[in-house]
Amino acid sequence: MGDGSRTKEALLAELAALRRRVTELEAVKREYEWVEEELTKAHYYDPLTGLPSSTLFFNHLSQAVALARRNGRQLAVLFFSLDRLRLINDNLGHQTGDLILREVARRVAACLRESDVLARPGRNEFMILLPETGRAEDVVLVAERIFAALDDPLVVQGQELVVTGNLGVSVYPNDGASAGPLIRHAYAAMCRARDEGCDTYRFYSPRLNERAFSRLMMENSLRIALQREEFFLYYQPQMDVASGRIVGVEALLRWRHPELGPVSPAEFVPIMEDIGLIVPLSEWVLRTACARNRAFQEATATPLRMAVNLSPRQLYQPDLVHIVRRVLEETGLEPHCLELELTEGALARNVTTTTATLGALDNMGVKIAIDDFGMGYSSLSYLRHFPIDKLKIDKTFIDSITTDHNNAAISRTIIALAHSLRLDVIAEGVETEEQLEYLRALGCNEVQGYLISHPVCADDLLRFLAPDTGGGLLPVAERPLDTLDIQS
Ligand code: C2E
Ligand code: MG
Ligand code: MG
User: Fold this and answer.
1) Pick the CATH number of 218-483 from 3.40.50.300, 3.20.20.450, 3.40.140.10, 3.30.565.10
2) What is the pLDDT of residues 440-473, one digit of tens each?
3) What does the alpha-carbon distance between residue 344 and residue 342 come to, in Å, rounded to a whole number?
4) Does the C-beta of 78 come closer than 6 Å to ligand 1?
5) Ligand 1 pocket check for 270: Cβ under 6 Å
């Protein structure tokens, strides 16, 4: 019995020892796990800024490239390198260098979208993935934002420090088909930026560089053009086919760049849309065109309709109806003498808003025409939903109407469709007598094109409308009415 109880005690002691050992081992295991976690973190995240490391960035980029490939999209990789960090570390200490890196990371992150990835591979470098931004002009906006964010001096230990850096950009698929080449090429572009001049950015592809820069220059010129009043209007007559009389004109915006000369509205109108300046410019176009129409009608004592192009953005301006009403009141133009030209693409964007806006304009008596008809969306159901008065057959179909069976068939169908919906049809870009005769035979109501007249200035239009007067009947304003006068 005594032996037995000793054995039991020994067993209990052994058990206790084993338990202690298990506890010890568990502690060791926890320590191992912690170390492993820290090592992984250090592998994937930069301890100083908490940003992803180059390994994690590479993973993100590889996934984004796969997605972009599947969706046929572009993406951009930016490589940013801060100047003079070593100098700061040596002279002001590593702590100051660290503070600067953290602040730069914070400011750069604030310029990015949630889906973008900012990483710090080490030292004075940052990498950025823009998975949804591939167009050179959009990347430029991001780059400009980053440089602007770093413009404000950093205050470190009571001292103001100005940080500068250089940035290189590579774009998928142009500059690389996978993560490795894209990063290398963004780095190479950064080196070029550094060599060419401090505190700037460069694209890897010289062609993208040129495009981005010419776009940027164009944007600047357009902003200045608004202030310098470099815009003016030309007018192109529209002829009624049956009577041969001029029943309307289209106002066409013109811009003469001081160095480049005339720039096509097809080129600058989309940029004005992008940079948000189309709204004030279009209001000026509307007011000038309406005032001019009033003057033309008074000078010729003949009714005349004025067509004005509306940009898609303008259609969604909440106060468009109000502006049109005000301009008509101010200029004294009858609403039915104003025709607004919209493209199919603009109409398709938001049916509810468009229905309300067009309904209000229709109630006012303003005419609506669909410009470039046949080039846009295939759904024709909107023709029944919206109060439309006229279709403008796109020039592309008219160009070869007498030689190409398909384009002739399309034009014939558009005219038949319009007439069955009780809409008028005008053909644009009519350049030859043959085209005019063909369109006459199809029953096209009106034509516009070089055959009748090129777009001309207001005085020339008046000479065209009323040759007997020799023009010059226009009330001469202190400053030409057709030059821009908007406060921007
Ligand atoms: P659009 O409204 O379709 O204007 C017709 C274009 O065809 C005009 O080009 C006109 O000059 C040109 N054209 C007219 N007849 C002929 C012809 O017989 N042959 C040829 N080859 N061309 C002809 P433009 O003036 O360069 O305007 C281009 C586009 O810019 C316009 O196309 C319109 O979409 C836009 N645009 C012009 N003015 C304005 C404006 O005030 N506001 C807005 N939002 N867009 C405008
Ligand atoms: Mg037009
Ligand atoms: Mg057109």
Assistant:
1) 3.20.20.450
2) 999 999 999 999 999 999 999 999 998 876 555 4
3) 7
4) no
5) no
